[in-house]
Design a protein that fits this description.
heterodimer; A: mainly alpha; B: four-stranded antiparallel beta sheet; 10 strands; globular; membrane (chain A); transmembrane (chain A); transmembrane helix (chain A)
C-alpha cells in the first residue's frame, strides 16, 4: 500500500510544483491537498494501470487505495502550509540568508 | 473444504450477450479448465468473478456468504476485500522497475516469503529487475506470488501464454501442488496443458458454459479444427 501512496504522491507533488507559477506557494499546497491525488491517480492509471491487480490480490480495492491516499495527502497539506508559512517568515526575517 | 458457487452471470456489451446465465461450482482440491475462442468471454467472466468488471446480473456464494456481482463501477467490490479469490490477469501486473527481492515482501510476510525465494529457479532471478526478466520468468514469478497468497480460490487467465517450456513445466508442477488447498479455474489457449491439469472441463460458446469430457467436443464447439 505504501508503494501506491508513494507513486501517487510523486505525481501529486509534481503537479503542485508545476502549479506554483499560477497559484503561488500557498496555492500549490492547496492544489496538492485537493487536486494532487486525482491528478496522481490519472497519471498512475496511465503509466501503471496493470499494477492495480497486485493490490487487488492483496485485498485493497481501488476505492480503498484512493480514499486512503487522498485522506493522507489532504491531512498532510495543512502541515505543509505551516511549513511554507514558517519558511517564508524566516526568509522575511533574513534568518535563512547566507 | 471451501465451495465457490457461481450462478446466473449475465453480461452484455451493448445489444450483444457475452455471458448468458453462466453458472458452475468449484471446490477446493479441484481444477476447472475453461476453453473458448478469443472474444468468447472467458477473461470477462474471470474479471466479473474477481470483481473488477461489472455485469448485468449474477452472484457468487462462498462458504455460506453471498457476493453479488458489481452492477456498476460505483458498486463496492466486496469480493476483492474478502480475499477469497486470487486472480492472475493476462497481462503482467508487477512494477517493471522493482527488483524481484523487493517485490516478494510486498506480497508475502515472514517465512512465507521463502515459498517464493526458495522455489526452483528463483534464487537466480531474485536480484534482477522485473522488467529484465524473460516472459517465462515473469509469469512464473507472478503465479508463485498469487498462488502463495491465502485465497482459497484462484482464477488464472492464460498462465502459460508465451511461456518457454522450462517455465511452463514449473508452473504446471506448482499448480498441481496448489491443488491440495485451493480451487483453481484456469483458462489458456495452450489447451493440452489445461486439459492435462484440469479435473473438470467446460467450454464457453455463445455465452453458455457447457461441461465437456472428451477433447473431440472442443471440435464440435468450434474451438479446434483438429486434435494434434
Amino acid at each position: 500500500m505504501f508503494k501506491f501512496y508513494k507513486d501517487i504522491t510523486f505525481y501529486a507533488l509534481l503537479f503542485a510544483l508545476v502549479s506554483i507559477p499560477l497559484a503561488g506557494l500557498y496555492g500549490a499546497v492547496v492544489v496538492f491537498g485537493i487536486f494532487g491525488t486525482p491528478v496522481g491517480l490519472l497519471m498512475y492509471s496511465y503509466f501503471h494501470k496493470h499494477e492495480f491487480y497486485g493490490y487487488y490480490n492483496r485485498g485493497f480495492s481501488r476505492r480503498y487505495l484512493i480514499l486512503r491516499t487522498w485522506m493522507v495527502n489532504f491531512l498532510v497539506s495543512p502541515v505543509l502550509l505551516l511549513l511554507v508559512f514558517i519558511i517564508l517568515k524566516l526568509i522575511g526575517f533574513g534568518a535563512l540568508k547566507g | 473444504m471451501a465451495l465457490l458457487k457461481v450462478s446466473c452471470i449475465q453480461k452484455n456489451f451493448g445489444a450483444k450477450s457475452i455471458l448468458d446465465e453462466v453458472h458452475f461450482e468449484l471446490k477446493t482440491g479441484k481444477i476447472l479448465g475453461v476453453f473458448g475462442r478469443n472474444g468468447s468471454g472467458k477473461s470477462t467472466l474471470l474479471k466479473i468473478l474477481f470483481g473488477t468488471q461489472t455485469a448485468e446480473a449474477g452472484r457468487l456464494k462462498m462458504n455460506e456468504s453471498y457476493y453479488p456481482v458489481r452492477k456498476n463501477i460505483w458498486h463496492k467490490s466486496r469480493i476483492i476485500e474478502s480475499q477469497q479469490i486470487g486472480y492472475l490477469p493476462q497481462f503482467s501486473f508487477l512494477p517493471k522497475g522493482a527488483k524481484v527481492w523487493d517485490v516478494i515482501p510486498q506480497y508475502l510476510k515472514g517465512q512465507e516469503q521463502d515459498l517464493v525465494f526458495q522455489a526452483p529457479r528463483m534464487p537466480k532471478i531474485a536480484g534482477r529487475k522485473v522488467g529484465e526478466l524473460s516472459m517465462g520468468e515473469r509469469r512464473y514469478l507472478e503465479v508463485l506470488l498469487i498462488g502463495n497468497l491465502d485465497h482459497p480460490f484462484l482464477l488464472l487467465d492464460e498462465p502459460f501464454s508465451m511461456v518457454e517450456p522450462l517455465f511452463k513445466d514449473l508452473i504446471h508442477e506448482f499448480l498441481v501442488s496448489l491443488k491440495a488447498k485451493k480451487g483453481i479455474l484456469i483458462t489458456d489457449h495452450y489447451y493440452h496443458d489445461v486439459w492435462q491439469l484440469s479435473d473438470r472441463k467446460m467450454v464457453l460458446t455463445s455465452g453458455k458454459l457447457t461441461p465437456i469430457t472428451e477433447l473431440e467436443e472442443l471440435i464440435k464447439a468450434g474451438y479446434l479444427r483438429s486434435i494434434n
